[in-house]
From TrEMBL:
Residues 66-424 form the Aminotransferase class I/classII large domain. It is a single-pass membrane protein. Pfam families: Aminotran_1_2. Keywords: Acyltransferase, Lipid metabolism, Membrane, Pyridoxal phosphate, Sphingolipid metabolism, Transferase, Transmembrane, Transmembrane helix. GO terms for cellular component: endoplasmic reticulum membrane; serine palmitoyltransferase complex. One of its GO terms (biological process) is sphingosine biosynthetic process. This is Long chain base biosynthesis protein 2a. It comes from Tripterygium wilfordii (Thunder God vine).
Amino acid sequence: GTNNLQGYAPICLGLEDFYTRRLYLRIQDCFGRPIASAPDAWFNVVERYSNDNNKTLKRTSKLSRCLNLGSYNYLGFAAADEYCTPRAIESLKKYSPSTCSSRVDGGTTVLHNELEKCVADFVGKPAAIVLGMGYVTNSAILPVLVGKGGLIISDSLNHNSIVNGARGSGATIRVFQHNTPSHLEEVLREQIADGQPRTHRPWKKIIVIVEGIYSMEGELCKLPEIIAICKKYKVYTYLDEAHSIGAVGKTGRGVCELLGVDTADVDIMMGTFTKSFGSCGGYIAGSKELIQYLKYTCPAHLYATSISPPAAEQIISAIRVILGEDGSNRGAQKLARIRENSNFFRSELQKMGFEVLGDNDSPVMPVMLYNPAKIPAFSRECLKQNVAVVTVAFPATPLLLARARICISASHTKKDLMKALEVISQVGDLVGIKYFPAEPKKQ
Ligand code: PMP
């Protein structure tokens, strides 16, 4: 599974030598040819990202621009922005690129406090804590929230950072079938009887973990049903909104807003700034007591350098644009645009006969390839025509469920999308991945 923007993803095989019983790794292209510089083939070099409508530059014998359908730049903020960029540059001059200190040792600037307040207000919680990396937010916070004697009930397709945090916590882990509330209830019922109070249960604490939009499936969480079950069994909920915060909901406030869930019903709200906000870092938002506790106990807060000031300023400014506090209606336009673009692209792909996973309004669009051997050909042929797509396969997906994962951005124009559809359609025919006839053939 790789962000295979350049289209040269090799196929990686773990083979066992029959005679020596030694395991070795063989990396080959889709024609079975070994790739000499194999390890580096996974790390594609993108020459640079440019400002104009989510284009990126590929590096071949000569530089050429290509349409980026791979990165999570949902609202188009990962580019020079008329409001965010001058502010990020000012903060760079004022604070430098790094605080070179942890939050407790001089790494808390005015910006850091402002960012946490701004994020808490935006997501609708009393307080928030910000860490320098989204991945670490899950993997370092979960072990602080729950430990031995606790129980984590996790969606089977939760992100690796959640899996890592859950394993590191020492809590018992149970997995429920992806986005299936009835199975979550079954798992819970095995552990506790209906309505048993929190103090009379075999577990010190129970946390149910879900994602707002699943990053490999493009699917919205069945949050209202899941919340109802969590309330019934009096267990905590942890919601990772990496792909939904900023990207969905009338004012960009994520799946709670989109699905009509009261944020008071979600105990722990997590998200990252690397998608809709065009920056980096992650947050946890919750009650004042919870955040205070995390600030004094989470090692990644106490011992890691605080988020870079220009990155913090980028997030604050992007939220101001989304809320219209920059004095323009660009934020509202971006939100309308990503919704329109996503729904248009998904329905056009389906009309062409592609199998596309996920729900309406979701900017994440997995196009099923199934056979992992089709991956390199699909992305390489798209790239030849200057359309960069990301393909994902095992271990990020089950072995025979390889897919191209298209991410739509508010900064894609209609013309961009039309070109992408044309290229993807041609490549789909070439590689043989159209599974449904668009219309019944007339005789
Ligand atoms: N949670 C989810 C659901 C993700 O998809 C990702 C990464 N794409 C992360 C957490 C980690 O976030 P980051 O890339 O910002 O470190």
